[in-house]
Design goal:
Layout (H helix, E strand, L loop, with lengths): L2 H8 L2 H17 L18 H13 L2 H9 L8 H24 L16 H10 L3 H16 L5 H15 L1 H5 L3 H4 L2 H21 L4 H18 L5 H25 L12
Helix pairs in contact: 2-3, 3-4, 3-7, 5-12, 5-13, 6-12, 7-8, 7-12, 8-11, 11-12, 11-13
Length: about 270
């Protein structure tokens, strides 16, 4: 019997899940107390979930499973349509939210200014690699989701991940200026359909963490460019529109795509 199989027998799935959540939050939250000394310091380490995924996989399952985990991050051979979904879908989702907000009478914060087109790839790279998606997705979708899918339908597994994903952001709401940037309740309501969409893309791309990382990165990049167009009540209303648009898209995938309905066998 291989080392990985021997170790995994000593670690039940429930134990792995609990340990992952504890380690991921601890690895992400440790800078939080430092904000008491320096309020301008970052209260959150975005790479925590990925570190937890690698550590827990090594301890609970062995080196072979670590390799399988990391290979999900370089699984790039998928149909081109899924690259279009990952890179254009979030832009359409957030763009539609902006249009709906304007249609409901929300005023712009000022003259519309966007970063030069030449800087957008760099902004996307920074938001994806440094801002969180690369540090998160190997944990949420690479480790956590495959351990939930054998026991729960994809919709339920997504709903279980959503509150953990929200909890991960807690220091940013409590200690950082993002409380004014992200209304906590609306952010939680947004994370729920986003979790469903990430699961859908993960399953449709044969467990490609690369594609869900690109999706997550595009969501963050488009949000950072388009959300500042509004302030005050108009900004809060934009978040409500974003929740509605994401919920409609997620509901459509659940209703129309059979892959979101059955119990999916565990894939390594």
């Amino acid at each position: 019997m291989s080392e990985g199989l021997e170790t995994s027998r000593r670690w039940t799935t429930r134990r792995q899940l609990v340990a992952f959540v504890v380690v991921a939050l601890a690895a992400s939250w440790w800078p939080w107390p430092l904000t008491l000394l320096n309020p301008d310091s970052a209260p959150l380490l975005p790479i925590g979930p990925t570190l937890a995924a690698v550590i827990l996989t090594a301890v609970a399952c062995g080196r072979r499973d670590v390799k399988a985990l990391l290979l999900q991050l370089v699984r790039w051979r998928v149909r081109p349509v899924w690259y279009a979904v990952a890179l254009l879908g979030p832009i359409a989702m957030i763009g539609l939210s902006v249009l709906l907000n304007r249609a409901l009478g929300a005023p712009l914060a000022g003259p519309v200014t966007f970063p030069p087109w030449s800087l957008l790839p760099m902004l996307f790279l920074v938001r994806t690699v440094v801002g969180g998606p690369l540090g998160e997705e190997l944990g949420w979708r690479g480790f956590l989701l495959p351990r939930l899918l054998p026991r729960f339908r994809p919709v339920v597994a997504s709903l279980l991940i959503a509150p953990v994903w929200f909890l991960f952001h807690l220091p940013a709401f409590v200690a950082g200026p993002s409380t004014a940037q992200r209304p906590p309740l609306l952010f939680l309501l947004w994370i729920v359909p986003l979790s469903l969409l990430h699961t859908w893309l993960y399953l449709r791309t044969h467990c490609s963490v690369l594609l869900v990382t690109l999706f997550h990165g595009t969501v963050d990049t488009a949000s950072s460019v388009l959300f500042p167009l509004f302030t005050g009540a108009a900004y809060t209303q934009l978040w409500a529109m974003a929740v509605v648009v994401a919920a409609v898209w997620a509901a459509g995938t659940v209703a129309l795509d059979p892959i979101m309905r059955p119990v999916i066998p565990r894939t390594r």
